[in-house]
Description:
The protein is mainly alpha-helical. Helix content is 64%, strand content 3%. It is flat.
Amino acid sequence: MVSKIDVHKKVYDSELNQLKNEFEEVEQQLKVEKRKTKKKELEAQYEVLRNKYDSLNKNSRLKEYKRKSESLGKRLSAGAFFSQKGKNAKEILLTKEQACIYFVLIRLAAMHNSWVSVWCNEGLDSFDSHMIVDLYEYIHENIYYAAGITAWGQSPYIDQWLQVLDIELDYSNSKRICMIENALEEIRKEGMGINHQINYGSIICCNEEGNQEYAVPPFGPVDSAVPKDVDPFAYDKFGTEEQYLSGIENLLKIYLKSVKQNSKKILEWALDYGKISKEINEANEEDANIETDESPDMETLDFDTEFPEYRQRNNNLIKYIKSETPTVMKTLEEKKLTVHEAIELINYI
Protein backbone atom coordinates (compact mmCIF):
# COMPACT_ATOMS: atom_id res chain seq x y z
CA MET A 1 0.00 0.00 0.00
CA VAL A 2 1.22 3.51 -0.85
CA SER A 3 -0.18 6.95 -0.12
CA LYS A 4 -1.21 9.50 -2.74
CA ILE A 5 1.66 11.77 -1.69
CA ASP A 6 4.09 8.90 -2.31
CA VAL A 7 2.67 8.59 -5.82
CA HIS A 8 3.18 12.34 -6.33
CA LYS A 9 6.86 11.90 -5.44
CA LYS A 10 7.16 9.06 -7.94
CA VAL A 11 5.61 11.26 -10.62
CA TYR A 12 8.23 13.91 -9.88
CA ASP A 13 11.04 11.34 -10.12
CA SER A 14 9.59 10.15 -13.41
CA GLU A 15 9.54 13.69 -14.83
CA LEU A 16 13.09 14.30 -13.64
CA ASN A 17 14.41 11.04 -15.12
CA GLN A 18 12.69 11.68 -18.43
CA LEU A 19 14.32 15.11 -18.77
CA LYS A 20 17.68 13.65 -17.76
CA ASN A 21 17.41 10.91 -20.38
CA GLU A 22 16.43 13.41 -23.04
CA PHE A 23 19.33 15.80 -22.52
CA GLU A 24 21.81 12.91 -22.15
CA GLU A 25 20.60 11.51 -25.46
CA VAL A 26 21.13 14.92 -27.12
CA GLU A 27 24.54 15.09 -25.43
CA GLN A 28 25.53 11.79 -27.06
CA GLN A 29 24.34 13.04 -30.46
CA LEU A 30 26.50 16.15 -30.06
CA LYS A 31 29.62 14.03 -29.59
CA VAL A 32 29.24 12.32 -32.96
CA GLU A 33 27.61 15.08 -35.02
CA LYS A 34 29.98 16.73 -37.52
CA ARG A 35 27.64 19.05 -39.45
CA LYS A 36 27.81 22.59 -38.08
CA THR A 37 24.17 23.49 -38.71
CA LYS A 38 22.83 20.31 -37.10
CA LYS A 39 25.27 20.64 -34.22
CA LYS A 40 24.04 24.16 -33.54
CA GLU A 41 20.45 22.90 -33.41
CA LEU A 42 21.42 20.14 -30.99
CA GLU A 43 23.28 22.57 -28.75
CA ALA A 44 20.20 24.79 -28.51
CA GLN A 45 18.02 21.75 -27.78
CA TYR A 46 20.46 20.54 -25.13
CA GLU A 47 20.47 23.96 -23.45
CA VAL A 48 16.66 24.03 -23.21
CA LEU A 49 16.44 20.51 -21.80
CA ARG A 50 19.26 21.08 -19.35
CA ASN A 51 17.64 24.28 -18.05
CA LYS A 52 14.32 22.47 -17.61
CA TYR A 53 16.08 19.72 -15.67
CA ASP A 54 17.95 22.14 -13.41
CA SER A 55 14.86 24.29 -12.76
CA LEU A 56 12.41 21.44 -12.02
CA ASN A 57 11.55 22.40 -8.45
CA LYS A 58 10.24 19.51 -6.37
CA ASN A 59 8.01 21.54 -4.03
CA SER A 60 6.34 23.50 -6.83
CA ARG A 61 5.76 20.30 -8.84
CA LEU A 62 4.21 18.55 -5.82
CA LYS A 63 1.83 21.49 -5.43
CA GLU A 64 0.98 21.24 -9.10
CA TYR A 65 0.23 17.51 -8.76
CA LYS A 66 -2.06 18.30 -5.82
CA ARG A 67 -3.96 20.87 -7.94
CA LYS A 68 -4.29 18.37 -10.78
CA SER A 69 -5.51 15.74 -8.34
CA GLU A 70 -8.23 18.07 -7.07
CA SER A 71 -9.23 18.96 -10.61
CA LEU A 72 -9.46 15.31 -11.63
CA GLY A 73 -11.44 14.55 -8.48
CA LYS A 74 -14.16 16.96 -9.64
CA ARG A 75 -14.48 15.08 -12.93
CA LEU A 76 -14.47 11.55 -11.59
CA SER A 77 -16.68 9.95 -8.96
CA ALA A 78 -15.23 9.54 -5.47
CA GLY A 79 -15.02 5.77 -5.79
CA ALA A 80 -13.22 5.97 -9.12
CA PHE A 81 -10.68 8.46 -7.86
CA PHE A 82 -9.95 6.93 -4.43
CA SER A 83 -10.78 10.15 -2.60
CA GLN A 84 -12.10 10.18 0.94
CA LYS A 85 -13.66 13.18 2.67
CA GLY A 86 -11.73 14.55 5.60
CA LYS A 87 -8.48 12.83 4.69
CA ASN A 88 -5.38 14.30 3.11
CA ALA A 89 -3.11 12.73 0.52
CA LYS A 90 -0.83 11.19 3.16
CA GLU A 91 -3.68 9.31 4.85
CA ILE A 92 -5.22 7.75 1.75
CA LEU A 93 -3.57 4.42 1.00
CA LEU A 94 -3.77 2.87 -2.46
CA THR A 95 -3.28 -0.67 -3.63
CA LYS A 96 -0.71 -1.44 -6.32
CA GLU A 97 -3.30 -1.27 -9.11
CA GLN A 98 -4.94 1.89 -7.72
CA ALA A 99 -1.52 3.53 -7.47
CA CYS A 100 -0.78 2.56 -11.07
CA ILE A 101 -3.95 4.27 -12.31
CA TYR A 102 -3.42 7.32 -10.10
CA PHE A 103 0.22 7.66 -11.19
CA VAL A 104 -0.74 7.66 -14.87
CA LEU A 105 -3.53 10.20 -14.39
CA ILE A 106 -1.35 12.66 -12.47
CA ARG A 107 1.59 12.16 -14.84
CA LEU A 108 -0.58 12.86 -17.88
CA ALA A 109 -2.37 15.76 -16.19
CA ALA A 110 1.00 17.39 -15.45
CA MET A 111 2.10 17.13 -19.10
CA HIS A 112 1.58 20.36 -21.03
CA ASN A 113 -1.19 20.08 -23.66
CA SER A 114 -1.86 16.38 -23.05
CA TRP A 115 -5.50 15.29 -23.39
CA VAL A 116 -5.77 14.85 -19.61
CA SER A 117 -4.25 18.29 -19.00
CA VAL A 118 -6.77 19.84 -21.40
CA TRP A 119 -9.55 17.96 -19.59
CA CYS A 120 -8.37 19.29 -16.19
CA ASN A 121 -8.30 22.84 -17.52
CA GLU A 122 -11.92 22.51 -18.72
CA GLY A 123 -10.81 22.81 -22.33
CA LEU A 124 -12.69 19.72 -23.46
CA ASP A 125 -16.24 19.79 -24.83
CA SER A 126 -18.10 16.90 -23.19
CA PHE A 127 -20.46 16.78 -26.19
CA ASP A 128 -17.67 16.50 -28.77
CA SER A 129 -17.60 12.76 -29.48
CA HIS A 130 -14.19 12.84 -31.15
CA MET A 131 -12.62 14.57 -28.13
CA ILE A 132 -14.20 12.08 -25.72
CA VAL A 133 -12.95 9.11 -27.76
CA ASP A 134 -9.43 10.56 -27.96
CA LEU A 135 -9.35 11.28 -24.19
CA TYR A 136 -10.57 7.84 -23.14
CA GLU A 137 -8.30 5.91 -25.52
CA TYR A 138 -5.34 8.09 -24.50
CA ILE A 139 -5.89 7.24 -20.80
CA HIS A 140 -6.65 3.59 -21.59
CA GLU A 141 -3.46 3.14 -23.60
CA ASN A 142 -1.23 4.79 -21.00
CA ILE A 143 -2.70 2.86 -18.05
CA TYR A 144 -2.29 -0.45 -19.85
CA TYR A 145 1.24 0.46 -20.84
CA ALA A 146 2.18 1.47 -17.28
CA ALA A 147 0.65 -1.72 -15.87
CA GLY A 148 2.33 -3.92 -18.49
CA ILE A 149 -1.05 -5.17 -19.71
CA THR A 150 -1.77 -6.06 -23.33
CA ALA A 151 -5.33 -7.42 -23.21
CA TRP A 152 -8.61 -7.33 -21.30
CA GLY A 153 -9.01 -9.79 -18.45
CA GLN A 154 -5.42 -9.65 -17.21
CA SER A 155 -6.27 -7.15 -14.48
CA PRO A 156 -9.93 -7.17 -13.35
CA TYR A 157 -9.55 -4.08 -11.15
CA ILE A 158 -8.05 -1.93 -13.90
CA ASP A 159 -10.59 -3.25 -16.41
CA GLN A 160 -13.42 -2.36 -14.04
CA TRP A 161 -12.00 1.10 -13.38
CA LEU A 162 -11.76 1.76 -17.11
CA GLN A 163 -15.38 0.68 -17.47
CA VAL A 164 -16.31 3.28 -14.83
CA LEU A 165 -14.37 5.88 -16.82
CA ASP A 166 -16.20 4.72 -19.96
CA ILE A 167 -19.56 5.44 -18.31
CA GLU A 168 -18.53 8.77 -16.80
CA LEU A 169 -17.13 10.09 -20.09
CA ASP A 170 -19.91 8.44 -22.14
CA TYR A 171 -17.15 6.89 -24.26
CA SER A 172 -19.15 3.99 -25.76
CA ASN A 173 -21.89 6.26 -27.11
CA SER A 174 -19.31 8.76 -28.35
CA LYS A 175 -17.57 5.90 -30.15
CA ARG A 176 -20.88 4.94 -31.78
CA ILE A 177 -21.40 8.51 -33.00
CA CYS A 178 -17.94 8.47 -34.60
CA MET A 179 -18.67 5.10 -36.22
CA ILE A 180 -21.95 6.45 -37.63
CA GLU A 181 -20.09 9.45 -39.07
CA ASN A 182 -17.56 7.09 -40.66
CA ALA A 183 -20.38 4.95 -42.07
CA LEU A 184 -22.00 8.02 -43.65
CA GLU A 185 -18.71 8.94 -45.30
CA GLU A 186 -18.42 5.33 -46.53
CA ILE A 187 -21.93 5.58 -48.03
CA ARG A 188 -20.95 8.79 -49.81
CA LYS A 189 -17.81 7.16 -51.22
CA GLU A 190 -19.47 3.88 -52.24
CA GLY A 191 -22.47 5.80 -53.60
CA MET A 192 -20.53 7.72 -56.24
CA GLY A 193 -21.61 5.11 -58.80
CA ILE A 194 -25.26 5.97 -58.20
CA ASN A 195 -24.75 9.69 -57.69
CA HIS A 196 -27.04 11.16 -60.35
CA GLN A 197 -27.35 14.59 -58.79
CA ILE A 198 -26.96 17.19 -61.54
CA ASN A 199 -27.15 20.93 -61.01
CA TYR A 200 -29.93 22.44 -63.07
CA GLY A 201 -32.26 25.40 -62.92
CA SER A 202 -34.42 27.75 -64.92
CA ILE A 203 -33.91 28.51 -68.60
CA ILE A 204 -31.21 31.14 -69.07
CA CYS A 205 -30.84 33.38 -72.13
CA CYS A 206 -28.78 36.39 -73.17
CA ASN A 207 -30.35 39.81 -73.49
CA GLU A 208 -29.50 42.43 -76.15
CA GLU A 209 -26.47 43.59 -74.16
CA GLY A 210 -25.11 40.03 -74.04
CA ASN A 211 -25.77 39.56 -70.32
CA GLN A 212 -27.32 36.37 -68.97
CA GLU A 213 -30.78 36.47 -67.40
CA TYR A 214 -33.54 34.02 -66.46
CA ALA A 215 -36.02 33.58 -69.29
CA VAL A 216 -38.98 32.20 -67.32
CA PRO A 217 -39.82 31.45 -63.68
CA PRO A 218 -38.66 30.01 -61.36
CA PHE A 219 -35.83 32.52 -61.20
CA GLY A 220 -33.02 30.51 -59.66
CA PRO A 221 -31.81 26.96 -59.04
CA VAL A 222 -34.53 24.33 -58.86
CA ASP A 223 -34.79 22.12 -55.76
CA SER A 224 -33.78 18.49 -56.01
CA ALA A 225 -36.29 16.20 -57.65
CA VAL A 226 -35.93 13.75 -54.75
CA PRO A 227 -38.89 14.24 -52.34
CA LYS A 228 -37.96 15.53 -48.88
CA ASP A 229 -40.26 13.02 -47.17
CA VAL A 230 -38.51 9.88 -48.44
CA ASP A 231 -39.62 6.80 -46.48
CA PRO A 232 -36.40 5.57 -44.77
CA PHE A 233 -37.76 2.00 -44.65
CA ALA A 234 -38.37 1.78 -48.43
CA TYR A 235 -34.65 1.52 -49.13
CA ASP A 236 -35.14 -1.51 -51.40
CA LYS A 237 -36.73 0.88 -53.91
CA PHE A 238 -33.94 3.48 -53.77
CA GLY A 239 -31.88 4.01 -56.89
CA THR A 240 -29.74 7.07 -56.21
CA GLU A 241 -27.30 8.11 -53.52
CA GLU A 242 -29.42 11.16 -52.74
CA GLN A 243 -32.42 8.94 -51.93
CA TYR A 244 -30.37 6.93 -49.44
CA LEU A 245 -29.05 10.06 -47.73
CA SER A 246 -32.52 11.63 -47.69
CA GLY A 247 -33.87 8.45 -46.10
CA ILE A 248 -31.16 8.51 -43.42
CA GLU A 249 -31.90 12.19 -42.74
CA ASN A 250 -35.61 11.45 -42.22
CA LEU A 251 -34.85 8.44 -40.01
CA LEU A 252 -32.64 10.65 -37.82
CA LYS A 253 -35.47 13.18 -37.57
CA ILE A 254 -37.80 10.41 -36.35
CA TYR A 255 -35.23 9.23 -33.79
CA LEU A 256 -34.44 12.76 -32.62
CA LYS A 257 -38.13 13.49 -32.04
CA SER A 258 -38.45 10.31 -29.97
CA VAL A 259 -35.26 11.07 -28.00
CA LYS A 260 -36.54 14.54 -27.13
CA GLN A 261 -39.91 13.19 -25.99
CA ASN A 262 -38.38 10.49 -23.78
CA SER A 263 -35.75 12.84 -22.33
CA LYS A 264 -38.44 15.37 -21.48
CA LYS A 265 -40.48 12.70 -19.65
CA ILE A 266 -37.45 11.56 -17.62
CA LEU A 267 -36.46 15.13 -16.78
CA GLU A 268 -40.01 15.96 -15.66
CA TRP A 269 -40.08 12.86 -13.46
CA ALA A 270 -36.67 13.67 -11.96
CA LEU A 271 -37.66 17.26 -11.15
CA ASP A 272 -40.96 16.16 -9.59
CA TYR A 273 -39.22 13.46 -7.54
CA GLY A 274 -36.49 15.90 -6.50
CA LYS A 275 -39.12 18.40 -5.34
CA ILE A 276 -40.85 15.75 -3.21
CA SER A 277 -37.51 14.57 -1.77
CA LYS A 278 -36.56 18.14 -0.91
CA GLU A 279 -39.88 18.75 0.89
CA ILE A 280 -39.53 15.49 2.85
CA ASN A 281 -35.93 16.34 3.75
CA GLU A 282 -36.86 19.82 4.95
CA ALA A 283 -39.79 18.45 6.96
CA ASN A 284 -37.49 15.85 8.51
CA GLU A 285 -35.03 18.55 9.54
CA GLU A 286 -37.81 20.53 11.21
CA ASP A 287 -38.99 17.47 13.12
CA ALA A 288 -35.53 16.15 13.91
CA ASN A 289 -35.92 16.78 17.63
CA ILE A 290 -39.50 15.49 17.81
CA GLU A 291 -39.94 11.73 18.14
CA THR A 292 -43.40 10.21 17.78
CA ASP A 293 -44.67 6.77 16.84
CA GLU A 294 -46.07 8.23 13.63
CA SER A 295 -42.76 9.74 12.48
CA PRO A 296 -41.57 8.14 9.22
CA ASP A 297 -38.31 6.25 9.11
CA MET A 298 -36.40 8.49 6.71
CA GLU A 299 -33.78 5.84 6.04
CA THR A 300 -36.43 3.75 4.26
CA LEU A 301 -37.43 6.69 2.03
CA ASP A 302 -34.03 7.51 0.55
CA PHE A 303 -32.19 5.84 -2.29
CA ASP A 304 -28.65 4.81 -1.51
CA THR A 305 -26.96 7.32 -3.81
CA GLU A 306 -23.56 5.85 -3.03
CA PHE A 307 -24.16 3.30 -5.79
CA PRO A 308 -22.25 4.47 -8.90
CA GLU A 309 -25.24 3.91 -11.22
CA TYR A 310 -27.43 6.29 -9.19
CA ARG A 311 -24.64 8.84 -8.91
CA GLN A 312 -23.94 8.70 -12.64
CA ARG A 313 -27.63 8.95 -13.48
CA ASN A 314 -27.81 12.21 -11.51
CA ASN A 315 -24.59 13.47 -13.11
CA ASN A 316 -26.06 12.84 -16.57
CA LEU A 317 -29.27 14.68 -15.67
CA ILE A 318 -27.27 17.65 -14.37
CA LYS A 319 -25.12 17.68 -17.51
CA TYR A 320 -28.31 17.57 -19.59
CA ILE A 321 -29.81 20.53 -17.69
CA LYS A 322 -26.59 22.52 -18.07
CA SER A 323 -26.67 21.95 -21.85
CA GLU A 324 -29.77 24.22 -21.91
CA THR A 325 -31.20 22.62 -25.05
CA PRO A 326 -34.61 23.88 -26.26
CA THR A 327 -36.20 20.76 -24.71
CA VAL A 328 -34.56 21.46 -21.34
CA MET A 329 -35.49 25.15 -21.34
CA LYS A 330 -39.10 24.41 -22.33
CA THR A 331 -39.39 21.89 -19.48
CA LEU A 332 -37.91 24.32 -16.93
CA GLU A 333 -40.24 27.06 -18.17
CA GLU A 334 -43.24 24.75 -17.65
CA LYS A 335 -41.98 23.86 -14.17
CA LYS A 336 -41.18 27.53 -13.45
CA LEU A 337 -37.60 26.67 -12.51
CA THR A 338 -34.20 28.18 -13.25
CA VAL A 339 -31.24 26.02 -14.27
CA HIS A 340 -29.75 26.44 -10.79
CA GLU A 341 -33.01 25.45 -9.07
CA ALA A 342 -33.39 22.41 -11.32
CA ILE A 343 -29.88 21.18 -10.52
CA GLU A 344 -30.60 21.66 -6.81
CA LEU A 345 -33.65 19.38 -7.10
CA ILE A 346 -31.68 16.70 -8.95
CA ASN A 347 -29.21 16.63 -6.05
CA TYR A 348 -32.08 15.63 -3.75
CA ILE A 349 -32.78 12.43 -5.70
